[in-house]
């Protein structure tokens, strides 16, 4: 590796879209025979490329991410044997069985050429379908089995700021598969409107650029609201400080 390859390319940002989350379903009677007696669901947690393979029943996963990801570590609930599981090669996913939902720590370690620290994500394992208004949070097993797989996925973008030249070369040699422009499948269940068809039963979801734009718009609106609230609090603070000074002056005057 030449010295020039270890020079950072300043004022340049390059990103890679990923999704992380899980798919879960009720186990079959055959699967329950080899699982712990209290386990009811089989689930897979994963880190994948955002684009899906056309015709596939998987969410995302069109690209092999090992060109920039070295390892993905999933930290499960402590009740699992060996709860820290590291996946060293694609697909970066883990399949288990269980009965309850819990938070999973996901640690992504990049290849050495990246020169970047590992990043951490958190995902709440979702086993049960999102209930419509008035429905129980955890449906009976026969209802959940009829519902089919439950999907809970989050879109994210890993941004590399001022990358090393050799790492930039690797990234540009492996462009991500573009997302479809418009929805071809249901939206991911976790962002579907409560009680909607997608939230109850809508097949395998797929991320698309329209959803990306909508998410960007939601983030911008959230930033705007935070700015408005911050300004309102600033003005209130100035007003209260003014009142405090007046009271102090009145007390000093006797």
From TrEMBL:
Record's subcellular location: Nucleus; Cytoplasm
Keyword Coiled coil: yes
Residues forming coiled coils: 219-250
Signal peptide: none
Main location: nucleus
Listed GO CC annotations: cytoplasm; Swr1 complex
Superkingdom of source: Eukaryota
Keywords per UniProt: Activator, Chromatin regulator, Coiled coil, Cytoplasm, DNA damage, DNA repair, Nucleus, Transcription, Transcription regulation
Statement: the UniProt record of this protein carries the keyword Cytoplasm: yes
Domain YEATS: 8-174
GO biological process, one term: chromatin organization
Family designation: Belongs to the YAF9 family.
PANTHER family, A to Z: YEATS DOMAIN (PTHR23195)
Subunit architecture: Component of the SWR1 chromatin-remodeling complex and of the NuA4 histone acetyltransferase complex.
Notes on the domains: The coiled-coil domain is required for assembly into the NuA4 complex.
Protein's job: Component of the SWR1 complex which mediates the ATP-dependent exchange of histone H2A for an H2A variant leading to transcriptional regulation of selected genes by chromatin remodeling. Component of the NuA4 histone acetyltransferase complex which is involved in transcriptional activation of selected genes principally by acetylation of nucleosomal histones H4 and H2A. The NuA4 complex is also involved in DNA repair. Yaf9 may also be required for viability in conditions in which the structural integrity of the spindle is compromised.
Protein name: Protein AF-9 homolog
Source species: Schizophyllum amplum
């Amino acid at each position: 590796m030449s010295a020039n390859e270890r020079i950072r390319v300043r004022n340049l940002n390059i990103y890679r879209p990923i999704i992380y989350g899980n798919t879960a379903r009720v186990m079959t009677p055959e699967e329950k025979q080899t699982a712990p007696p209290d386990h009811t669901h089989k689930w897979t947690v994963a880190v994948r490329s955002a684009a899906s393979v056309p015709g596939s029943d998987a969410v995302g996963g069109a690209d092999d991410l090992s060109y920039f990801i070295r390892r993905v570590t999933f930290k499960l609930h402590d009740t699992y044997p060996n709860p820290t599981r590291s996946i060293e090669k694609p697909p970066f996913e883990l399949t288990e069985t269980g009965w309850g939902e819990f938070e999973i720590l996901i640690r992504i370690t990049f290849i050495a050429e990246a020169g970047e620290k590992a990043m951490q994500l958190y995902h709440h394992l979702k086993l049960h379908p999102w209930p419509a208004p008035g429905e129980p949070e955890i449906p009976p097993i026969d209802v959940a089995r009829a519902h089919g797989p439950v999907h809970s996925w989050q879109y994210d973008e890993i941004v590399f700021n001022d990358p090393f030249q050799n790492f930039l070369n690797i990234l540009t040699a492996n462009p991500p598969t573009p997302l479809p422009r418009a929805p071809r499948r249901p939206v991911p269940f976790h962002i579907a409107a409560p009680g909607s068809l997608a939230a109850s039963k809508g097949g395998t979801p797929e991320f698309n650029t329209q959803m990306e734009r909508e998410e960007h718009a939601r983030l911008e609106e959230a930033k705007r609201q935070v700015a408005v609230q911050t300004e309102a609090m600033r003005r209130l603070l100035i007003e209260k400080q003014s009142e405090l000074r007046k009271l102090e002056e009145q007390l000093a005057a006797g």
